[in-house]
Amino acid sequence: MDIGIGLPGHAPWTEGRTLVDWARRAEERGFSTLAVSDRLVWTTPEPLITLAAAAGATSRIRLLTSVLLAPLRANHALFAKAVTTLDQLAGPDRLRLGLAPGLRDDDFTEGGVDYATRGRQFDRLLDRLAGVSLGEDPVGPRAATEGGVPLLFGGHSEAAIRRIVTRGTGWIAGDATVEGVREFAPGLAKAWADAGRPGSPRLVATVMFALGPNARQAVSAAIEPYYAFAGEEYATYGASAALTTPEQITTAVAGFAEIGVDELIFAGNDPDPGQVDLLADTIGL
C-alpha cells in the first residue's frame, strides 16, 4: 500500500511558502503522493495552483486533488486547459484528480453556480476535460499523461459509482474508516466488473492526522471550525476521529492495508512542516 500526505490547507496556515516546503519534504521523505483539498468559502488554497507550485518544487512525487469540487468550475474549457497545462508542467503520470460534486451550498452561492444542477454540470465538465486531454478539442494543450489524467471520484451515491465505472480509475474516500471502506468496496467491485472494466478499481482512503505534543489542540483548531457548517456534534466528532498518536497511525496503516486499500493519504492539520518528518518517522519512511 502506498502512503501519501495531504497539505494542511484547511488548517490555520498563514504563509503560502510553508505549503511548498511541505511538498519538498514530502518528496524527500519518500511519500507516494502530495494531496490538496478544496473549498471556496474557506482559506483552503486553490488546488490546481497549489499543485502547480508543488510540481515546480519537486520532480517525482505524485500530485492529487483530494477532492476538487468540480462543478464550481463553471467554465469547463478553462478548467480543462488548467488541468492539462498542469499535467504538462508536472510531467506525465504524476497528476491525478480526485473529484466530487460538493455538499456545501455556500460554496455554490458564493461561486454563482447553481447547486441543484451541479451533477449535470459535473458530467458536462468531464466530457470537455476528456476531449481536451486527448487532443480532440480546439482548446489545448492535450494532457502529457497518455489517455488523460487519471480520475478518482468521491462519494457513495449511484451517480458516484456510475462516474467511477464509466470514467474513472477508482474511488477516493474522505475521512475514511476501515469499516466504511470495507462496506463500500464490494459493491463498487461488482459494479466495476458488471461494466466490463478489467482488473479492479483503485481504492484511495484519506484520514486526518497531527503528531507531537500539541497534536490534539492542532486538530481541534483545524477541524472544528472547518466542519462547523454541519453542527457542533459533527465538528467535535471530526476532530476526535483524527489520528494523533504513533500507535493510531500504525494501526491505521495496518488496517487499511489488510482490506486492500491501494493508497492511504494522511491529511495534515498542523501547518508546521516538521509534521512531514514526524509522520515519515512514525511509518518508517
Give the secondary structure arrangement, pairings included.
Elements lengths: L1 E5 L9 H13 L4 E4 L10 H11 L4 E8 L6 H15 L4 E6 L4 H7 L6 H16 L17 E3 L4 H10 L2 E4 L4 H17 L7 E8 L5 H12 L5 H10 L4 H13 L4 E6 L5 H10 L2
Parallel strand pairs: 1-2, 1-8, 2-3, 3-4, 4-5, 5-6, 6-7, 7-8
Radius of gyration: 18 Å
Backbone structural class: alpha/beta
Total separate domains: 1
Number of E strands = 8
| Pattern of helices and strands | EHEHEHEHHEHEHEHHHEH
Protein name: Alkanesulfonate monooxygenase SsuD/methylene tetrahydromethanopterin reductase-like flavin-dependent oxidoreductase (Luciferase family)
GO molecular function: alkanesulfonate monooxygenase activity
InterPro entries: Luciferase-like_dom (IPR011251), Luciferase-like_sf (IPR036661), SsuD_RutA_monooxygenase (IPR050172)
Keywords: Flavoprotein, FMN, Monooxygenase, Oxidoreductase
Structure description:
It is a single chain. The protein has 285 residues and is of the alpha/beta class. It has a single domain, classed as Luciferase-like domain (TIM Barrel), CATH 3.20.20.30. 47% of the residues lie in helices and 15% in strands. The chain is built from eleven helices and eight strands. It has helices at 16-28, 47-57, 76-90, 105-111, 118-133, 158-167, 178-194, 215-226, 232-241, 246-258, 274-283, and strands spanning 2-6, 33-36, 62-69, 95-100, 151-153, 170-173, 202-209, 263-268. The protein is globular. The model has no long low-confidence stretch (mean pLDDT 97).
